[in-house]
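Bug #77: duplicate submission created two jobs. Keeping one. Sequence:
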Amino acid sequence: MTRRLSLYQRLDPDLVLRAYAMGVFPMADHRDAPGVYWVEPRMRGVLPLDGFRLSQSLRKTIKRDRFRVTADRAFDAIVGLCAESAEDRPETWINPPIAHVFARLHELGHAHSIEVWEGERLVGGLYGLALGRAFFGESMVSRATDASKVALAWLVARLRVGGFTLLDCQFQTDHLRSLGAVEIRRDAYMALLGEALGPSAGGLVSGVPSLAGAFDALDRLGPGFDAASPLASGTVSEPPSGKDIVQLLTQTS
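Kept job's structure:
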């Protein structure tokens, strides 16, 4: 089920935040389209944060720190990479209005990215929107084997540490299904969304719900942390290692 927006109506951050709080999101017909339309799927893809499937091969890749993984270091570059056409994805739905509004949402602290690097080359990652204790994944990209899987694994670990309860994948795909995503009806999704946003979701003001996850909580753990211990306060100079991420993903909640 979709609802189309006038091609001449501008996307602004407040409009987008309110839309996500109601369970709808913008897309474009193609990356050069002048406008967007609103999408409200009858079936929604979500990835339970305690249900991420960590295969043995992916576990080894993460533990070896084959890639360097960062967060919010190259947001615009990730959006640009997601919008690029590729052999396996000749057309994308990220047009200039969507890229521009998400850049603004990033400046406001609502939109975030996970970047995967091979040396100094950006080879994959993802971006999305954090609202309350929900994270809405927008797009993933991979230019090296397993790069998008690594990005998603780090995202799930980050959301678990930060107190998030919902990872919205929008649409189910075979790739997401292999990593633990499931498809649920719209009414079930709205119940999860309501729990993640809290009682103020219906009267959302400036995109600030009554509950909030901490997207940067993982950064305060540092390397070699005890995953069973309370979150350390303050900041650290080094990020967690791949072994730490595997520990977080395999521990029992």
